[in-house]
Structures are given as C-alpha cells and as structure tokens.
Amino acid sequence: MMTTTASSDSTRLSVIQRLRQIRLGRWCVILIPMLWLAAFFFIPFLVVFKISLAEAMIAVPPYSPLIEWDPSNAYATLKVTFGNYLFLFESRFYLDAYLSSLRIAAVSTFFTLLIGFPIAYLIARSGPTQRTILLALVILPFWTSFLLRVYAWMALLKKNGLVNEALMAIGLIDQPLQILQTDFAVYLGIVYTYLPFMILPLYTTLEKMDMSLIEAAQDLGAKPWRAFCLVTLPLAKPGIIAGCLLVFIPAVGEFVIPALLGGSDTLMIGRVLWDEFFLNRDWPLASAVAIIMLIVLVGPIMFMRNGNKEAM
Amino acid sequence: MKGNSWALKLSAGFGFIFLYAPIIALIVYSFNESKLVTVWGGWSIKWYVELFQNEQIMNAAWVSLKIAFISASLAAVLGTLAGFVLSRMGKFTGKTIMAGWVTAPLVMPEVITGLSLLLLFVAMESMFGWPAGRGTTTIVIAHTTFCLAYVAVVVQSRLASMDETLEEAAMDLGAKPVSLFFLVTLPLIAPAILSGWLLSFTLSLDDLVIASFVSGPGNSTLPMVIFSKVRLGVTPEINALATLMILAVSIAVIAAIVIMRRQNRFQGP
C-alpha cells in the first residue's frame, strides 16, 4: 500500500511532483523482476513452441527455420509442421511414456503423503524445543543435494548393497534381489527425495489446527480413527493438496531418479525428452514432448497457485 | 491433550529412519578402506585424499561454487524485488501474471526449464549475437531465474506475516519510499533474504538437469561430473564428497535455524 501523507507546509505542487516520482519509481521496481521473468521464464516457452513446429535437420541449430526468406523475389514463406505432434500421438511409445510418468508420479505422491503425514502431525503436536529439532531434521535432507541423496540409494539397493545383505542376514531371501534398476527403485527414490516437500506444507497447516476440536470430537464419543477422518483430515486438506502438488508436478518430469535408479525399461517422459535431445539430437521433437508435458501439467500448476494462498 | 499415541510415534519414527538411513550409510562408507564400496575394509580417509587430488572434481567444484555465488546473489536481489512488489505494491496491471511466473518455476519439471532456456539462448544468439556460445553466463542466467522464485516466495511469506505498522509509521513521519525500503523494510526482511540466498546457493550447487542443457563444452559443473561418474556405478570418492557437502549443509541449516529463532518465528522453506 503506497499512501503518502503530505506534511502541512508542503505546497500542492510538490505533492503532485512527489506522487509522480513515486509512480515512476514504482513502475521501475515492478518492471525489473517482471522483465527478467518475462525474458527468461515466459518467452522461452514461446521459443519451445515455435521450434516444436519446425523440422529436424542437420544444421546449426538443428532445426528448419520457421520463416523462409527468398531474396530473389522478396517472398517469405511460413513453414509450419505439426508432424512432431502427429508423430507423438501416433506412436504408442510416447503415449506410454506419458501415462507411465503420470502413474509413477501419482503412486509415489500417495506414498509420500502416507509417510509424510505422521511426521508432520507429530511435529505439529510437539513442544516448542522438540518441534524445532524435528523440523530441523526434516529441513536438513531438503537442503542436502538431491543428486547425492538419489546416489545414496544406489549403494543401498545394488546386488551386494546393504539392503540385500540385511535381507539375506535375517534369512528372508537367500539370493540377492534385483532392486536397483527396477520401477520399485524409482518409486522409492521419488518418495525419499520429495518427502520434505510433502512434510513442510502439511506441517504448516497442521500447526495452525485447533487441537481442541479433536478433543471435542472424542469427548462426544468419536473413536480416535473417526475423529481423525472427520476432523483432522478435512482441516488438513489445504496442506495435503499443496504437498501433493509440490511432489506430483515435478515428479512427472523427473529425469535424475529414473536415470540412476530405474531400469532401461522404466519409461518416464523426462528421460524420453532428455534422450530425444541429447542422444537423437531431435530438438523439434524434444520441444513437442515438452509442450505436451506442459499442457498436461498446466492444470495442476494453476490449481497449486490458487490453492497455495491458503496453505502456504 | 494426552501424549502422542505409540502408533503415531512409531510411524513418524519409521519416517525419520527412512529419511536418514541412506545418508548415514553414505557417510559411514565414505570412511571405508575398501574400493568395493559396500564391503567393509576398515576405517580410512584415503578417499578424501583422492578426492582432493582429483583435478576434474576440484575444477568442477570451483566452477559450481562461482556460479552458485553469482546466481544466488542475483536471485536474492531480483527475488526480493519480486516478493516486495507482490506483497507491498497493491494492485497493478499484470500482477496475477507475475504471481504465476514467480510460483510456476518452483514446480516446473527441470527438463522443461532446461530445454526452453537453451532454445532461448540459441535463438538469442542467432538474433543478437548474445550470449555468444553457452557457458558460465548462460548457467548463471538459468540458475538466477529459478532461484529467484524461491527467494520471492520466502520474502513474500515473511512480508505477509509482518504487520505494516512500522512501515506506515515511517511513512507518516515523512520517509521517502526509497529510504523507507532501505531503512525499515530491508532490515526486517534481511533474515528471509539470507535464507533465500542460502537456499539459492545450495539449489544452484545441486542442479544437474538445467545446467546440462545450458552449459557449453568445457564448462562441466560439479553435479555434471558427479552424474557422469555415478552413472557407471558407486564411486568411493563421491561418497567422500557427499559427506563433506552434507557437513557443510548441516552447519548452514543449524546457522539458519539460530538466525530464524532469533526472529522468534519459523518460516517454511
């Protein structure tokens, strides 16, 4: 809120001058971050869209120009192809990749919620000192390198890794299991690395919750489980939604986890895009993959923006 | 209220073990003498010695630290401006759009951000001749853009939780907008900016995907080197490196918590 109070001795003119200065300065302050974000966040999507309509070719850069300029008769032709999109829709492979990414992200999000909720709930109900310590324990992994936390699981899950050794030591299995390079390892990796993103918004909502409501429900004869379902869950809804979206949206496009923990048959769209770009060097097709992914995710992203006003 | 039920404690306890077991295993194995990472061969610091003698890793670490420092500083300035604009400037044309641009990078899959920025840089180069090629500059721009969003969110939530009476009082006493910002608002949100800077620094230091898209030849960042080594299997030197990074982060987090506690309020990430 920008209100100015003119001191009693200032003339009318100087007030107007000051307001004009403020208005100018105000727009400068607004425009600096706005222009940066427009240039490096928004316009890039337009460029991706443009290139998704081009054809791949062996050139620098490796795609056909959108407008072809013929200098001999000053004639410009617009060359647009929807071939990349048609290719994506016709090929079973890409459709499967999208569906399997959505499935992997959804299942992982559910398990992240399942593991994250008790932690967030316990922290919200702890005393002040214990709360700070427990919160720090959640925040620490959040700040620790994502890549290294994924890597940590490689050592645990491999054939002669700790998990297999432990399972064999207690006699559950007598042959090492193939855990690394399976879909299971990918689920595990996503749940593990994204867990803090679930716990923190959940905690923020649960912390504000009035615990006496649960007591009231229990005093009125509700069993703890019923009180949880009828009171706690509805009140925690904004946090649950925020947490789930913070996990689900980036997980759909995840690359590092399927690349390091997944098998060669683990199909995720982020990895497909990476390979299309770095291995096949098909920039237009990679762009089309990105645009479709963006369209799929735009709904959840908008939903998150509206939701996080209350949750965060 | 009665004490927390054993079921809650048990499931939360399981959650914490899940969070920490891999990290602890990584730290313990970094002191393993044996080259076979998972076979215990006695305590040793030899992988730390090898780590510091590995020129490729050391060069990449230096490149990454430089990029992280510049990006975090730029993001702190731009993000503070963005957070301030969104929470203290009232309504203006384009505010909704800007709010969307600030939150979307937080969840945008990295492959999309990376690809779109690379294509932008390529298009810019062919149109204006800048940035010439890809390298440190393009990585800094890319990192600044996504870190900016984190700083903006932290600053915005700090400003939202702060009442405006101090700022209003200063204005009533005749402070001009610029001095009001630098003398009143900025000191109040300094802890939020600092934690935003630290978060940006670690995020930049950690980014593999975006940097892979927008970096040029000979500009490998630390995560790119780690990824190329780790892809082929577990490497003891990387365990040593991971331990050092976890140690650094722990110190930073504890410092941040102390600062936050001094503010007597705990802000989310």
Taking the sheet with the most strands of chain B, its summary is: none
Under CATH at level 1, the class of chain B stands as: Mainly Alpha
What is the percentage of strand-forming residues of chain B?
under 5%
What is the overall pLDDT average of chain B? 86
Assembly status: heterodimer
Tell me the overall shape of chain B.
globular
Question: How many strands of chain B?
Answer: 0
Strand content of chain A: under 5%
The CATH topology assignment of the largest domain in chain A is MetI-like fold
Organism (chain B): Marinomonas ostreistagni
Domain ABC transmembrane type-1 (chain B): 61-259
Pfam family, one (chain B): BPD_transp_1
Transmembrane segments (chain B): 12-31, 67-86, 98-124, 136-157, 178-199, 238-260
Briefly say what this structure is.
Chain A is mainly alpha-helical and 312 residues long. Helices cover 72% and strands 3% of the residues of chain A. Chain A is built from twelve helices and two strands.
Report what the structure shows:
The complex is a heterodimer of chains A (about 300) and B (about 270). Chain A is built from 12 helices and 2 strands. With about 300 residues, chain A is mainly alpha-helical. Chain A folds into 2 domains: about 10-50; about 85-310, MetI-like (MetI-like fold), CATH 1.10.3720. In chain A, strands 1-2 form a two-stranded antiparallel sheet. In chain A, α5 (about 145-155) crosses α7 and α11 (about 270-280) runs antiparallel to α12 (about 285-310). The longest helix of chain A is centred in the N-terminal third of the chain and has 41 residues, at about 10-50. Chain A is flat. By secondary structure, chain B is mainly α. Chain B has a single domain (about 60-260), classed as Orthogonal Bundle (MetI-like fold), CATH 1.10.3720. Helix content of chain B is about 75%, strand content about 0%. In chain B, α3 (about 55-90) runs antiparallel to α8, α3 packs across α10 (about 220-230) and α4 packs across α6 (about 135-160). Chain A: Keywords: Cell membrane, Membrane, Transmembrane, Transmembrane helix, Transport. Chain A: This is ABC transporter permease subunit. Chain A: It holds the Pfam family BPD_transp_1.
